[in-house]
Amino acid sequence: MSFTVNGERHEWDAQPTVDALVRGLGLPDRGVAVAVDGAVVPRGRWDTVVPPDAVIEVVTAVQGG
Questions:
Q1: Helix (H) or strand (E) holding 20
Q2: Which domain holds residue 7?
């Protein structure tokens, strides 16, 4: 299965959930926003399965001033 994360194509053997995807990419599970095909997925719904050929955007919060 393939999908695009932040403009980069990825191949996975199985259809991951949003949570498995975030963890599999080594991203933190806090301070992160995820959108799948343009729709933001709230943290409480990260058990949502990522559809094939999805376009995923992951944004990490950065502290600054």
A1: helix 18-24
A2: 2-60
